[in-house]
Amino acid sequence: MRDDEGPIASITVPAEGMVGVLVPEAEVVLTAPGFARLERLDVQVGDRVREGDVVAALDVREERHELAAATAAWEASKAELERLELELQKARETRSDSEQLEGVVAGVELREHRYAERLAAARKRSASASLRQQRSTVEDASAKIVEAQLRAPFAGAISRRYVDAGATLELGKPVVQLISDARLVRFAVPEERSAALRLGGAVQVEFVDEGLKVRGEVAAIAPEIDAGTRLLFAEARLEPGDGFLQALRVGTVGQVEFVER
Q: Which of 60, 72, 219, 260 is the most exposed place for a label (fewest CB within 10 A)?
């Protein structure tokens, strides 16, 4: 159930039916992931976007420099690790050869070869740790660049613009508000009719002024009856049509009736 019960609470239900208000199934405010300048904001209020579309982009020149430096350091760490792997392999072979000649090679020399192998192994472990750290830095820099592109989490329409391109944003600063194409009808059920209300129940919504009727299914029911109005609030998910639902403005009022499937 949506938290904001908006205009429904002030509606008087006529005797002939229940009143519902058209609302988006989802809405979200896209915010800045950090302190940055807004480089692009091409959408206007009312523009439609698809899921995954880039709605706005932040300036990431600093992040790209950081990524380039991190990538170079990562490549250098990989090369160093490869060199140390060869060094360790050589130390192992030298130590093995010395052990096979243990009766000929002096004990001091054999100990030195064993020490050299352990030292090479320690250097390799250190290089491996450094490589993992560099990789993490590369991934962090890449993630910042990805986050700098604000993408639509679902298909819908831009309902509000908070800033313009070129603005300097702080962490959490709102950029645009997006409402989904999917629609719900939020309606009020008189207490005496609440026994007919159930999850999954079928409803029909008639938008009289628009000359439209659409079927839906009850998706949410409030846990209690409003003490002041003796109304029970519910939401029904409307069946997708041929785009006519998107043509109706959010806030459009319709008459709701329970129907048999």
A: 260
- The pLDDT assigned to 127 comes to 87
Q: What is the pLDDT of residue 243?
A: 58
pLDDT digit string (tens) for 86-114?
888 888 888 787 777 765 556 677 778 77
CA distance 231 to 221: 11
pLDDT given at position 2? 45
- CA–CA separation, 187 vs 234, rounded Å? 6
Report how far residue 191's alpha carbon sits from residue 146's, in angstroms, rounded to the nearest whole number: 50
- Determine contact, residues 186/20, Cβ cutoff 8 Å: yes
For residues 43 and 54, give the distance between their C-alpha atoms in angstroms, rounded to a whole number: 10
Output the six-digit token pair for 55: 């709605």
As a whole number of angstroms, the distance between CA 28 and CA 178 comes to 5
Closest CA to 185 of 253, 260, 244: 253
Which bin fits 52, alpha (ψ -120 to 50), beta or left (φ > 0)?
left
Angle, helices 61-100/107-147, rounded to nearest 10 degrees: 160
Name residue 70's amino acid. A
For 22, list phi and psi in degrees, rounded to 5: -75, 130
Q: Is 26:179 a contact under the CB 8 Å cutoff?
A: yes
pLDDT < 50: residue spans in the chain: 1-15, 242
Q: What angle do CA 191, 215, 45 make, to 5 degrees?
A: 100
Say which residue the tokens 């391109």 belong to: 165
